[in-house]
What does this fold into?
Amino acid sequence: MQALLVIYQIVNTVIYIYSLLIVIYTLLTWVPRLLNSTIGRILAKIVEPYLSWFERIIPPIAGISFAPVVALLVLYLINNYALRGIILFLMRFV
It folds into this structure.
């Protein structure tokens, strides 16, 4: 049971950090010079594959992309509902 809690904490932390990276990347897109920096390119390689799923589905409105908002919402739902549900389900059998 202790191992499940450790796994939950690790996955929870990874999702939290990834969410922060999405927010930072989104803020960097407002300043193109920062997006072309080394940090911006590294963040783009990490975040853009996930965001591209949502950008294909959700078109920009008036030049503003709402894909990061939906992507963060999906991560929140996965973290707070799906992941918790899976862990609680598995803890019943341990």
